[in-house]
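Late entry, evening session. Most of the bench is empty. Finally got around to the prediction I had been postponing all week. Sequence below, unchanged from the version circulated by S.P.
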Amino acid sequence: MADRRLREAARHAVRRLHGERAYDAAIGAARALRERRRDRAWVAVLDDLLTSGVTTTGAGRFADPDPASTPIVMCLWNRPERVEHILGMLAGLDPAHPVRLLLWNNHAPDAAFYAETARRWAEGRGALTSVDLVQSPRNIGGLARFVAARLLRNGGYRGPFVMLDDDQDVEASFIGDLLRDWTPRSIVAWWGFSLHGSYWRRAEITPGTEPDHAGTGGTMADIDLVADDRFFARLPSRFAFLEDQWMTFFAKANGWRVVKGDTRIVLVLEEKNQYHGLRPLKDVFYAWQQSPAGARALRGGTRRPRWDAGRLRGPVSRGAAPPHPPTAR
């Protein structure tokens, strides 16, 4: 309250002196500086992960550059009661399209529970060939899917990877459904809409058509999407947890094919979705993408060779490299 009164007093004084334009410019410059500092701090977090890599527990096979099974990444936050059901569901997928799973836990209080679950399911069952777990050193939200994909790509894997949310129930044909539409340099998303001037003014579209927005849950993407260092370096920190909007924006800006997939998914426990707290920011991000600032964000190139060093390291992973110490920035 005292700070607010001080700001109001300063504003009145500036008006009396007819210096409001200069005052506004100074305030704007200070805010921009704070934003740049936050952006650098956020990129530093990603830099540590992409340079040093992470260690998995469980089977340790997710990092193998093996095209015989499709890698699935699932982030965990606040639905531990769902994990056993999901593992059984993945085990029951069509065995013609086996999968290997990486669980990325962003919620430290559930670490022991997930560690025990990953241990019991490490060798997989049915179509689920293996389970690995990353206990994230901090909550990086859904962007963890793409960090895991980059580390997987660093280990030699090429091809499609799948992102699944822990509030989604899929059918046995899930992987085959997405593969029917997948091509290199493409994103096949179950959650896709056309947008009409706002993130919240949206309409359903039919499978096989191009959405203006594609969600990350229930989505298959070419792993080469994360080979471009700008994917991690250019995402503003204030939008860091809106990775679905960033994925769509980034892919379309770079000429990728984005298509709505034809598969059936049922959403459960939506009331526990982390995105509810981000709702007001979604339209802000949408407007930013349409603005000159959005266009400038992807201008030019960014290359950080040290981000090729990070690996997913597991106890028996054939594709993993030894740990890499952090590189000085």
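Two things to note before I forget:
The chain has one domain: 40-313.
Residues 20-52 form the longest helix (33 residues).
Will write this up properly tomorrow.
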